[in-house]
Amino acid sequence: MLNLFMARECMNKEKFIYENIKGKTYVLVPNQYTLVAEEQALKYTGSACLLDIEILSLNRLGQRIMAEHGKENIEILDKYGRHMLLYKIIKSHKDELEVFKASAEQSGFIDMVNDFIADFKQQDCSLDELKSAIDSDSNSELLSHKLHELMLIIDEYESELEGRYIDSEDYISMYVSLIGESTLLDNHSVWVYGFDTLAPKSMDALIEMAKRVDVNIMVNISDFDLDTILIAALTSRADLAGVAISKEYVPDEYRAYGR
Q1: Is the pLDDT of residue 164 over 90?
Q2: Average pLDDT over residues 106-117
Q3: pLDDT of 243 over the 90 cut
Q4: Burial class (CB in 10 A: 0-12, 13-18, 19+), 133
Q5: How far is it, in rounded angstroms, from Cα 242 to Cα 133?
Q6: Are 17 and 191 in contact (CB under 8 A)?
Q7: Side by side, which strands form the sheet with 215-220?
Q8: DSSP conformation letters of the chain
Q9: d(Cα 76, Cα 169) in Å, to the nearest integer?
Q10: Is residue 248 a contact partner of residue 223, using CB atoms and an 8 Å limit?
């Protein structure tokens, strides 16, 4: 079951979450927010320690699922390792580049390609989709050349990874495929908060969990329609997966300030 709880910034989301948690629970928050989230949990539960509540990032839970299946020792290529690999690839293909030739060995360009690949894979894009974008009649000639050169780099990058490394984006795909078999979710519920958006791969992980346990997601209502986009994406994925979904607003009694 997937439960979406909508609330504006003025609502006390943590109080709502911890007053509605029952039994063993994983609270999933962004990587950089785990310490603050633990402090908030102690505050609103009124406990000196968290016995049945565990706060961690989605990737950290994924690592445990991988370890449960004996896959904890897989060598993961992180952002910095990818930077070094991209430097080697781009340098070796410099003569094949036209648009990016002048900036090919600059650190800023390599960082840009690094971020592009991370977003590309997080969004579940494929090289075939990139090729279709290149062939689109709506593109300018310059944009087509840029995309072609990026595809050249990404294709070589994937070839370098094959059989040797796995990057963090493919790592997510691996643990998503194991969620259905994991005993770590047994007798647990899941709460998710602190995210304005979720990457498709992260949504896939949550939908897989929702096939087995209650997954409760706090959706931040904004003036930029990010909440609308997120709800639509989660609803579509839940429908395709046959997961029941509910939507409700956090009650006004949890208003912390404002009107």
Answers
A1: no
A2: 92
A3: yes
A4: middle
A5: 31
A6: yes
A7: 53-56, 25-28, 189-192, 215-220, 2-7, 245-249
A8: -EEEEEE-TTB-HHHHHHHH--SSEEEE--GGGHHHHHHHHHHHHT-SS-SSEEEE-HHHHHHHHHHHTT-TTPPEE-HHHHHHHHHHHHHHTGGG-STTTTTTT-HHHHHHHHHHHHHHHHTT--HHHHHHHHH-TTS-HHHHHHHHHHHHHHHHHHHHHTTT-EEHHHHHHHHHHHGGG-STTTT-EEEE-S-S---HHHHHHHHHHHTTS-EEEEEE--SSSHHHHHHHHHHHHHHHHT--EEEEEPPGGGB-S--
A9: 10
A10: no
28 vs 35: CA distance, rounded Å: 12
Distance (Å, whole) CA 47 – CA 53: 11
Residues comprising the chain, all counted: 259
Rounded CA-CA distance 37/164 in Å is 36
| pLDDT single digits (tens) 19-40 | 999 899 999 999 889 999 999 9
Structure confidence at residue 19 (pLDDT):
93
pLDDT at 137: 67
pTM above 0.85, yes or no: no
Whether residue 87 is predicted with pLDDT greater than 60 in this model: the reply is yes
∠ Cα 196 180 29 (to 5°): 25
CA distances from 218 to 7, 110, 165, 231 (A): 7, 35, 35, 11
CA 212/CA 243 separation, integer angstroms: 9
186: number of Cβ within 10 Å: 9
